[in-house]
Amino acid sequence: MADIKYYDVILKPIITEKSMNGMAEKKYVFSVNPDATKTQIKEAVEKMFAGTKVVKVNTVNADGKVKRRGATFGRTAKTKKAYVKLSEDSKDIEIFQGL
User: Fold this and answer.
1) Three-state SS for 75?
2) What is the per-residue pLDDT for 98?
3) Residue 71 and residue 62 in contact, taking contact as beta carbons nearer than 8 Å
4) What is the mean pLDDT of residues 6-12?
5) Once rounded to an integer, what is the mean pLDDT over residues 20-28?
6) What is the DSSP string of 14-68?
7) What is this structure's pTM?
8) Per the CB 3.0–4.6 Å rule, which of 12, 19, 43, 46 could disulfide with 29?
């Protein structure tokens, strides 16, 4: 497994209606590197967003979909989502403010 730096772990936040409802309970959803582990995700969130304390990380792996173009078949890229739960005394993540 390749050495992944903390700034390469989190790719982007996922902003949906369901994820916005989870923010009231300090639950955030991120698209992460498919090779990242739960401990790497926890460290990346705590380093990138100062004042946050991660309690729990849940991950979901999604294989790429099979696509066809003419006679050839291929796959889209596989993805991974991370559901991050912050502690009650933790600061909120600012990138989600005002949405």
Assistant:
1) strand
2) 63
3) no
4) 92
5) 92
6) ---HHHHHHGGGTEEEEEE-TT--HHHHHHHHHHHSTT--EEEEEEEEEPPPEEE
7) 0.86
8) 19
Say yes or no to pLDDT of 35 above 60: yes
Q: Which residues contact 38 (CB under 8 A, 6 or more apart)?
A: 57, 59, 82
3-class secondary structure, 9: helix
Residue 16 confidence (pLDDT) above 90: yes
How far, in Å, CA of 44 to CA of 78, rounded? 21
The whole-angstrom separation of Cα 96 and Cα 84 is 13
Q: Cβ–Cβ contacts within 10 Å for residue 49, how many?
A: 19
Partners of 81 in the β-ladder = 31, 60
Neighbours of 18 (CB within 10 A): 9
Tell me what the mean pLDDT of segment 26-45 comes to: 95
Rounded distance between C-alpha atoms, residue 72 and residue 9, angstroms: 32
